[in-house]
Amino acid sequence: MFEVLVDHIEKKVHLTEPEKELIRPLFMARKLRKKQYLLQASEVCTHLTFVAKGLLRSYNVDDKGNEHINQFAWEGWWISDFYSFLTQEEALFNIDAMEETEVLMISRHDYEELTLKVPAMDRYFRILYQNSLVTKDRRLMSSTTHTAEEKYLQFAKRYAPILGRIPQHLIASYLGLAPETISRIRRKRMTKDAG
Amino acid sequence: MFEVLVDHIEKKVHLTEPEKELIRPLFMARKLRKKQYLLQASEVCTHLTFVAKGLLRSYNVDDKGNEHINQFAWEGWWISDFYSFLTQEEALFNIDAMEETEVLMISRHDYEELTLKVPAMDRYFRILYQNSLVTKDRRLMSSTTHTAEEKYLQFAKRYAPILGRIPQHLIASYLGLAPETISRIRRKRMTKDAG
DNA sequence: CGGATCGTTGATCAACTTCAACGGTCGTGG
DNA sequence: CCACGACCGTTGAAGTTGATCAACGATCCG
What we know:
By secondary structure, chain A is an alpha+beta fold. Chain A has helices spanning 2-10, 17-23, 82-87, 108-117, 119-145, 148-158, 168-175, 179-194, and strands at 28-32, 37-39, 47-53, 55-61, 67-74, 78-79, 94-97, 101-107. The longest helix of chain A is centred in the last third of the chain and has 27 residues, at 119-145.
């Protein structure tokens, strides 16, 4: 399981054996059942978590009780309430498992330690965040410029590898659409493809 | 001008004098007139730019010719088409000056060099991107969960210090609203405050 | 078997956009 | 110094997209 993490890191930066040995004990492995919370809103997000296996979602709940999904994270992704993790203030997001999931977690303190002691990890996270910023920019742009249909099609394309693992109403929640809207878009496409 | 940059960096990480001297020649100073492009879509974004003075915007133009503003950057902010900068592919965004502006620019090559030679800068950018991710998350959440009015009020609050420097129709473009909508929201608020 | 979960369909409704026209202000060139 | 155009905000009326509400059908699983 730790190997999944190291493989992922080494796609971006080189790690020496001693560095790997330094990193290993900083991470804690954990298994989550389907529907189990990793974090609940108003707790403090104490750990950054890496997904070795399975699928998680982060979401917040608005005043009217509607859930809005912020992120899906599967094998090879990181997830957290980043704001809460950095500031140690109350989390706004909930995070829970959509499948049986295995994660590796690092605490705020150890994260700081890690980035200070292993500059390669500073670099790794810098590159990770860099890429993440690019995709967030795209998503943001998409959310204001695209129609419901365009958003859905783009999502389907981008998330093709795990599309089958995400129920439609959660895709709707992620895209900020009503589940009915997704349903109608798909019907329209079906008949179009058929005609 | 270089001092503005160094001050900004030293709010996040410590730099030694030799490091500062190493950094200085990597940046190129440039002045921009109002309306002058820093980058146009379909060019390659060759530099990361730091704003020492003035105000820039990045935006893209959709199929119908509508502009969608992605970011405002004023004193102390960085701006670029990050995707293009990282991949050296064609830029999707335009960047231009909304005021007389002074910037410091670093090339893709020197950026790589900088982060490799000065680990503190790897760390600086890591922290910068970290924070940026948090605000992007908030904005994304806001764009799907909030009404037009909530979005505008949130913007007005967050951008209070430079609100006077941004014309209303550009705020509309940033928020993904019609200019008329902003106008109506403000009117509603005025009469409300008066009553 | 029975409840939970998920998707579908139709009807109505609300928020925001679009279109069109107008008024004010600012800066610049004649 | 004034006149004109560019730029910006405002207002009203009509139009559209997607949300909401309500009901139903299918599948999965304990």
